[in-house]
From TrEMBL:
Sorted UniProt keywords: ANK repeat, Repeat
SUPFAM superfamilies linked to this entry: Ankyrin repeat
Name of this protein: Uncharacterized protein
This protein's record includes keyword Nucleotidyltransferase: no
Secreted found in the keyword field: no
Pfam families, sorted: Ank_2
Length: 256
């Protein structure tokens, strides 16, 4: 009990010292918007100051702790909602997503925070949410168009991170519809005529499409004939497998 009391005393003393030296940081950490507002005038220069504990600014403390009212006060004075830290390059959105602060992350995105900004590890906010199992933030970022395929400097995608940390719900969210999205992107990347793209897309949806990479050295009359044939058919176009399309005698195209 004595050791515990001494530990609590040291922690309280450290907190008081932190509050005295970094009043804006302490206000954002505790979530006191009124205290923050009263201290801003005399400590305005502290808005970009990074404390020695985590090297965070007041905005980063507010984002990590989920204090949107403090972020609002700061944003009224200076637009720092997307400010990266000097060493880690992390933005408030990185910290909000890591801490699972869904409403704060949503607030930051609504004000223009860059969803795919990378930190010193090459990790995006989606990596941070996946690392800590913040499912709500993972779903929020995906709904706002976050790139689930971005790799960190270690070569890890957000899905890899979630799997390593065994956050099954995040793994499921990151895997959901990923294959269909990749297949759709593959079809678009072929630069095929619209009718052919639709056929390949239907083949994928039917389970008979194997994504391929194509290169087109020159135009081909056969492709135009194939497209015209599909467009002229009444009703739904007949479903062709990828093998049928690829086996057509088409000069100028190579499938690999």
């Amino acid at each position: 009990p004595l050791v515990s009391a001494m530990g609590d005393g040291w922690e309280a003393a450290a907190e008081l010292e932190f509050s005295a030296q970094f009043p804006l940081h302490a206000a954002c950490k505790s979530g006191s918007a009124e205290l923050l507002r009263s201290r801003l005038q005399s400590h305005y220069q502290h808005l970009l100051l990074e404390d020695p504990v985590h090297q965070w600014t007041p905005s980063h403390w507010a984002a990590y702790c989920g204090h949107m009212d403090c972020l609002t006060v700061i944003n009224q004075v200076e637009s720092l909602f997307d400010h990266p830290l000097t060493r880690s390059l992390q933005t408030p959105l990185h910290l909000a997503c890591f801490a699972g602060q869904f409403m704060t992350a949503k607030w930051l995105l609504q004000r223009g925070a860059v969803i795919g900004k990378e930190d010193y590890m090459g990790e995006t906010p989606l990596h941070k949410a996946a690392r800590n199992g913040s499912l709500d933030c993972v779903q929020l970022l995906l709904s706002q168009g976050a790139n689930r395929g971005t790799r960190s400097h270690s070569g890890l995608t957000p899905l890899d991170v979630a799997q390593m940390q065994r956050h099954e719900s995040c793994v499921e969210a990151l895997q959901r519809n990923s294959s269909s999205n990749e297949a759709a992107s593959s079809c678009e990347s072929l630069l095929l005529p619209p009718g052919v793209q639709q056929t390949l897309k239907r083949c994928h949806d039917n389970g008979s499409f194997d994504p391929v990479v194509a290169k087109r050295p020159r135009c081909s009359d056969e492709w135009r004939l194939l497209e015209a044939e599909q467009q002229a058919e009444a009703g739904p176009a007949p479903l062709r497998t990828y093998q049928q399309v690829a086996s057509c005698s088409i000069s100028g195209w190579h499938f690999m």
